[in-house]
Design goal:
Blueprint (H helix, E strand, L loop, with lengths): L16 H12 L2 H4 L1 H38 L6 H8 L2 H30 L8 H16 L3 H30 L28 H5 L1 H8 L4 H4 L7 H30 L11 H9 L4 H33 L17 H11 L10 H36 L16 H13 L7 H25 L14
Length: 469
């Protein structure tokens, strides 16, 4: 392992605006859309699923605008972990950083598991865990490239995913109104909205039980903040990327969920095969289902790749602020934090639990753990922005001087905190998510306790706030 010299300890600003936008957009078009959408419809019904993704979109808007204000003012690698350290407290920064690393590394494991499940369409007799191992090695190679090489790869991967979703929306709308035939059946229009118990077959409360699935689906949008330390001209490119991404994500998800709800009764949608593939199987376009399956596979690996990028960079930032071992702060000659990458991949080996547990059980478990960890991080972003703006105004700063300012302060961060807190209650009512909730809360407590035991009585050894990416 050939590590760079100590003076070469900063990441390179080599990401352009198009890279930032596609990295963040691509980061949310993966398991959450291609597999999770069907699961959410199955659990909450068509109306419940659509409502859940709309509520999730509102929450995403609140988080991203809060993060945007902070990232433009202070564009550093590590992003919200650094902001929490400075504007909430070192213990919160430490905990938030490690919680995000936990959630993002777990998500990478989710993507490996989901990719293995997708491969069973072609190789039904090969265990999922073998594919997990293959994909772990593959993504290690992708992430060991230079940052520019990674960004360019993700740009094209994300482009493929976006085109696939647009194509699905066009075909799906055609199938709803009978323009495209599905196995010779009459056009369903929106009759399936009233099948299997109607729009809300299990009531409204189940909408909030499934919200962790939605939070998991939207995870990855905050990659804009993580990548701020490697972005060219962040004051200009970060606001542009945030403005472009939020509503496009919402449109992609809500449109896709509406189409799936119209084409299938909710009882037919689940986890074992992507409903996107099922649609192309049904319309009879030659090889379209296999092509879509391949697109979904690349999408899952792309999201896993993005998660490895985010968690690796965050672990690097934790090291440079004294919150992780110095070995994780070293870079190769290509400016890649290889030790952080290896540590993250080691944690992602949780996906190999599919060798002893059912793949769909592992999938839901890891998904709930990741969603809960990310919810804590989103709360940290909102509170950091609330405290930053209050301090900024107290010191005589003017909102008009901010290059990107979250509107409706202080209502926006307060609403974000309230909504996240509300959503944290409902996983208690789902057996699988309940374990994920306890796991997430337990991790939160452990991280805080470790900080106070490790640093609390030694002020001179407490972590510091980095000043650049």
């Amino acid at each position: 392992m050939n590590l760079g010299n100590e003076q070469d300890k900063h990441l390179q600003r080599s990401m352009k605006s198009r890279h930032l936008f596609m990295l963040s957009l691509g980061g949310v078009i993966g398991t959450g859309l291609f597999l999770n959408a069907g699961y959410t419809i199955n659990q909450a019904g068509p109306g419940g699923a659509i409502l859940a993704y709309i509520i999730g979109g509102v929450l995403l808007y609140l988080v991203m605008t809060c993060l945007g204000e902070l990232s433009v003012k202070m564009p550093v690698t590590g992003s919200f972990q650094t902001y929490a350290t400075k504007y909430i407290g070192p213990a919160s920064g430490f905990t938030l950083g490690w919680m995000y690393w936990l959630g993002s590394a777990t998500t990478a494991g989710v993507e490996f598991t989901a990719a293995g499940m997708v491969m069973q369409r072609w190789f039904p007799d090969t265990p999922v865990w073998i594919w997990c191992a293959v994909f772990i090695v593959l993504l290690f190679c992708f992430n060991a490239l230079t940052t520019k090489g990674f960004a360019e790869t993700e740009y094209w991967f994300a482009g493929i995913k976006v085109l696939a979703v647009i194509f699905f929306i066009i075909v799906g709308v055609g199938a709803i109104f009978g323009i495209v035939s599905m196995e010779g059946k009459p056009a369903p229009f929106f009759s399936n909205f009233s099948a299997d118990g109607g729009l809300f077959p299990f009531g409204i409360s189940i909408v909030f039980v499934t919200m962790m699935n939605v939070v998991f689906s939207y995870q990855g949008s905050e990659l804009i903040g993580i990548a701020a330390g490697e972005a060219e001209n962040p004051q200009k490119n970060i606001p542009r990327a945030i403005r472009n991404i939020i509503f496009r994500i919402l449109i992609f998800y809500v449109a896709s969920v509406t189409i799936l709800s119209a084409l299938f009764p909710s009882s037919q949608l689940g986890l074992l095969e992507s409903p996107f593939v099922t649609v192309f199987d049904a319309v009879g376009i030659p090889y379209a289902a296999d092509i879509m399956n391949f697109v979904i596979l690349t999408a899952l690996l792309s999201v896993g790749n993005s998660c490895l990028y985010a968690s690796t960079r965050l672990l690097w930032a934790l090291s440079h602020s004294g919150m992780a071992h110095p070995v994780f702060g070293k870079l190769t000659k290509r400016s890649v934090p290889l030790n952080s990458l290896l540590m993250t991949l080691a944690f992602s080996l949780l996906s190999l639990l599919t060798s002893v547990l059912a793949a769909d059980t592992v999938y839901v478990l890891l998904m709930s753990v990741s969603g809960i960890a990310i919810t804590f991080c989103w709360m940290g972003i909102a509170l950091s922005q609330f405290n930053f703006r209050r301090q900024y105004l107290r010191e005589g700063g003017k909102v008009g001087d901010l290059q990107f300012a979250a509107p409706f302060y202080p209502a926006m961060p307060i609403l974000c905190l309230a909504l996240c807190t509300f959503l944290m209650v409902y996983p208690i009512f789902d057996a699988t998510q309940r374990f994920g909730l306890f796991y997430g809360i337990g991790a939160l407590v452990v991280f805080y306790l470790y900080y106070y035991l490790r640093y609390g009585r030694h002020k001179d050894k407490r972590p510091h706030v980095p000043t650049q990416g």
